Amino acid sequence: MALFSYLEQYEKECSTEIELDVCAICCEFTEYENLVEFQDNFSDSFKSIEAIQDETTVIMIGEAFIIQNF
């Protein structure tokens, strides 16, 4: 739901329609349960969510979050 809301808001802000392509969305975004899981998959050089936000889009879902892959 958070990703849908983000994409819907993006459409409104950019005045452009996004085509629903589930495969593309799955390849473009990844959900992590918490910062530790992200660090296990990427690098512990990202010490905070803010550090990740400096590199890419982060959509918060409580402690979990979705990133736009980079």
Describe the overall structure.
This protein has a 3-stranded antiparallel β-sheet with strand order 1-3-2. A hairpin with a 2-residue loop joins strand 2 and strand 3. It has one domain. Helices cover 46% and strands 19% of the residues. The chain is an alpha+beta fold and 70 residues long. It is elongated and about 35 Å long.
Sum up the structure in keywords.
single chain; 70 residues; alpha+beta; 3-stranded antiparallel beta sheet; 3 strands
Summarize the model shown.
By secondary structure, this protein is α+β, with helices and mostly antiparallel strands.
For the biggest sheet, the summary is: 3 strands, antiparallel
Number of helical stretches of at least 4 residues? 4
How many strands in all? 3
Mean pLDDT: 93
Order of helices and strands: HHEHHEE
Query: Roughly how much helix do the residues carry, as a percent range?
Result: 40-55%
**Structural Rg:** 13 Å
Unreliable segments (pLDDT under 50, ≥5 consecutive)? none
First and last CA, distance: 22 Å
Shape call: elongated
The domain tally reads 1
Strand order of the largest sheet: 1-3-2
Strand content: 15-25%
Structural class: alpha+beta
